[in-house]
């Protein structure tokens, strides 16, 4: 395809600083809003029992459109990319797309978040395509409870994927556990013990409200501090030093001999906004600078009407300029019970 004015010369480092001096270096890319599970924190009871409202094919960004945005973003200084969904591995030809991502000069850190249902059979190809790190959603170690949370009896498929990821050589392999009082809070110690015997990072994520599709309620919320207090009965939680490009988790090792680690992600009880370095591109082409703010820049008109990549660069810089200081979620909950109105599966969690 011939393009006009498509130079992707790197922007200065200063241009990727937001108004609060945070350096933006991380893009989360949602491939699809579709998912093969019906997790209770993503869908309402009515949606779990019926069909979900899904984006039409023409409303989704094509792979070539996504690649164009990523190439521009990487040329500007974005060095870390996470592939999300929905469930990204259900999108057709996803391995070819990831292979194309891996060929982009300067993009050396490609990560994947998946529910793990389809991962095992694709593990070697994903690793060969350039994905080095993977996060699995796993909210229970009990197969029957897992089925109640996700709407599907596939725990053993997911665990097979986790084992395959460790065997193939993905590192780190992380397990994302949405902590819910009365649902899985009696398993926190079991997850912690898992981190002692396997080289996994188990990450406890505070249950937060995400749009009209969420079944969030205050009674199900449990803070990271409460989770840590429960786990500390098993032994000392030793804090780990943060590395460059680390995410929002506070990371600990449960005892000196533990093979893995524990992470605590606390969007409600402990702000990590001061260290946020990310942008999000939704499956529909909306560029967001904050998960919990609904302000977006729609890239689809640019991608479908112009070959000038300078317009994409300008949109990325505008999103960085618009990045809020913090999400103010507690104030919104306290004042009105409100939340972010975007569907998590479309934004990319």
Written overview of the protein:
This protein is of the alpha/beta class. It has a single domain, classed as TIM Barrel (Alpha-Beta Barrel), CATH 3.20.20. It is 30% helix and 17% strand. It is built from 12 helices and 12 strands. It has helices at residues 45-49, 63-76, 94-102, 123-129, 143-150, 155-168, 188-197, 224-231, 300-305, 309-321, 329-336, 344-347, and strands at 26-30, 80-84, 109-114, 131-137, 173-179, 200-206, 237-239, 250-254, 261-265, 278-281, 286-288, 296-298. The protein has a 12-stranded mixed beta sheet. Helix 2 packs across helix 10 (309-321). It starts with 25 loop residues before the first strand and ends with a helix.
Task: Give the tags.
about 30% helix, TIM Barrel, alpha/beta, about 350 residues
- Total of domains: 1
Report the end-to-end length measured between terminal Cα atoms: 33 Å
CATH architecture: Alpha-Beta Barrel
Secondary-structure element order, N to C: EHHEHEHEHHEHEHEEEEEEHHHH
Instruction: Indicate the radius of gyration in whole angstroms.
Output: 20 Å
The number of helical elements comes to 12
CATH class: Alpha Beta
The number of strands is 12
Tell me the strand order in the biggest sheet.
7-8-9-6-5-4-3-2-1-10-11-12
Integer average pLDDT: 88
Shape: globular
- What portion of residues is helical? 25-40%
Taking pLDDT < 50 over at least 5 consecutive residues as the criterion, the unreliable ranges are: 1-12, 336-341
